[in-house]
Amino acid sequence: MSEIRKLSLEELETYSDIVINAYPGVSNNSPDYREKLITRLTSIQEEDETIDFYGLFREDKLLGGMRIHTFTMNVLQHTIPTGGVGLVAVDLLHKKEKVAKEMIEGFIEMFKDKNVPLVMLYPFRPDFYKKMGFGYGSKMNQYRMNPSGLPKHAKKDHLQFAREEDGPLLVDCFNRYAKDTHGMIYKNGHEAKNYFQDPNKKIVVYKKDNVIEGYLSFSFKKMSETNFCLNDLVIHEFVYETNSAFMELCGFLESQADQVNRIVLNTQDEAFHHVLSDPRNHTNELIPSVYHESHTAGVGIMYRVIDVEQFFRIVPNHLFGYETVSIKLKIDDSFIQENSKDYLLKVTNGRIEVLKELTCDVTVGMDIADYSSLIMGAVDFQALYRFGKVQLSDESYISLLNQMFRTNQNPICMTLF
Fold it and tell me: In what residue span(s) does the N-acetyltransferase domain sit (predicted)?
C-alpha cells in the first residue's frame, strides 16, 4: 500500500538523492551540488507557501517525489486557482513499479479535493502523460533572429537597466500582462528577488512615471572558443503592456546588430514572424518548394481538466460563442472514472449550464486529453473533428461547435515549473 504525503525537511535529503539520479543531464553527484540542492529545496519548502514537496512511500521507504505548485492563473479572462506538478522523480531501483503513475493520481486528487478544475505539467514524455488525460497546450516556437530583422526605433528615452529595488515593479508589470493574457500564471511577491539571482542575466526595462510597462530579461551566450566577438543574445522573458514599450525594446535589440550574432527568443505567439523584416533563422534551409525555415517548434506544457462541471462554474462570464443549443458531451476519461460520463450542456446565447436532464440537439464525444486542449483554446474543434478525435451525431453542427469553443488567443504560459 502506497502513502503520499508532504516531505519533512529531513526527508528532502533522500528526495534530493533521488532527483540527482533521475536527472543526470541537469545534475551531478558532487557533494557540493548535493548540498546546494538540499539547501534550495529546503528554502522553497520553508519560505514559498505556493510550493510543497510530496513523496510516495511504501513500507515507510521513499520511492519517489514531486514538487506541487498552487497557481493563480488567467483562464479565459477569469482569475482561478490551478495546480502544477514538476520535478517528478522515481528511485532508480523502483522504476516500472507504477510509482510515477500513483504520484500523478495523488497530485490530481489533491486538487480535486480543493475543487480546483484544472492542472498542468511539463512532460518528460508527452505520450506518458497523454495516456493520463493531459492534452497538449500551445507549441513553443524558437526564433534565432538576425538583430537587423527587428524593427528599428530611434527613441530609447524610457529604457534603463533594472535595479534590485525594481523587483516589485517587475512583478507588477508581469501580472498586469498576465491579467490580459489567457493561460498566464501570476507571479507572487516572493518571486521579485528571483529576477536578480543570476548575475549573468541582465534586465532592460521600459519605465515611465515610475511604472515598468515592459522589460527584457536576457543573457549573452558565447558561440566560439576562439572568437570572443561572436555571441548570441538569449531572451529569457520579453514582457510588454503597450505598443510603445514593445517598439522601444525591439529598437534596443535591433541596435545590438554590431555585437550580437543572433537573438534567441522562445515564444508561443504564433504571429511573431510578422514582426520581422527577415524571419529566416540561421540554417538557411528551404522546406519544399520555397518556404524558408523561420523557427523550430516543440510541444511542452500540457493541461488537464480534472472536474468538467466545476470548470464551467469557475468561468461564469465566459461566452462560449453566441448560439443557443443543447449538447450531450460524452467524455472518455480512463484515468478518472468519475469524469468519464455524459454531461448535458444547455447553452443559451453562449452561457453554459450543466443540467441533470435535457433533450439534446447534438451529441459530442471525445477523450479528456483532447477536450482539455480544446477547452483551453490550444486546438480548434474543427481540427479535432478533421483528425478523427471527435465523435459527432450531426455534422451540421461543426461550425457552431467550432465557434463555441474558439478562444480569442491560444494559451500563453511563460512560467517554468
Answer: 2-157
Tens digits of per-residue pLDDT, 144-177?
999 999 999 888 899 999 999 999 999 999 999 9
Closest CA relative to residue 417, chosen from 8, 32, 52: 52
Dihedral sign, CA of 127, 129, 135, 138?
A: negative
- State pTM to two decimals: 0.94
Whole-angstrom distance, CA of residue 336 vs CA of residue 105: 9
**Which of 355, 317, 339, 344 lies closest to 111 in space, CA to CA?**
339
Task: Write the single-letter amino acid at 341.
Answer: K
- 376-to-204, 306, 402 alpha-carbon distances in Å: 32, 13, 13
Q: How far is CA 173 from CA 104, 149, 187, 214, 241, in A?
A: 33, 27, 10, 7, 8
Distance between CA atoms of 43 and 91, rounded to whole angstroms?
23
> Residues 6 or more apart from 103 whose CB is under 8 A from it?
4, 54, 56, 64, 65, 66, 85, 88
Cell numbers given for 134: 493531459
